[in-house]
Write a structure and sequence with these properties.
This protein is mostly helical. It has a domain of 71 residues. Helices cover 83% and strands 0% of the residues. The chain is built from three helices and no strands.
């Protein structure tokens, strides 16, 4: 019987080992890509930008309320200084009753207006905080 020779295709243990290593490496890269895509979907840039825009709007509203508060305090300080000046002039000279009466009228008018402005500020502040007094 004649001897049948099979063709030598060069399959060795090393080539099988390299092939298995290549398959493991490719599957590892594929898994990393799939996990990266899943993570990218979870952390959407658009969602982060929308959240930051919402927070920025709230911060801007708080800053505007703070500006109004400082404006009220500045007006209060001006009125206090005018009243103090009228009192000092009266105490020093003792005879400037007309200016003292005028300043009392100005102070009464200012306090009435100030109360209205303070209530408006408080309402805006409550609306800004969702009705919570903070």
């Amino acid at each position: 019987m004649p001897e049948v020779k099979l063709p030598d295709i060069g399959i060795t243990f090393d080539s099988i080992l390299y092939t298995v290593a290549l398959i493991v490496a490719v599957s590892g890269v594929l898994v990393a890509i799939v996990k990266g895509v899943e993570a990218w979907k979870k952390i959407s840039v658009r969602d982060r930008v929308k959240a930051l825009e919402g927070r920025m709007t709230k911060v801007e509203a708080r800053l505007q309320l703070g500006d109004k508060r400082f404006e009220l305090q500045s007006d209060d300080m001006g009125q206090t200084l005018n009243t103090l000046q009228a009192l000092l002039i009266h105490f020093i000279s003792g005879n400037d009753h007309d200016r003292l009466r005028d300043q009392l009228q100005d102070l009464t008018t200012y306090m009435s207006d100030r109360t209205t402005r303070a209530l408006e500020y408080a309402n805006e502040h409550d609306n800004q905080n969702g009705g919570n007094n903070q």
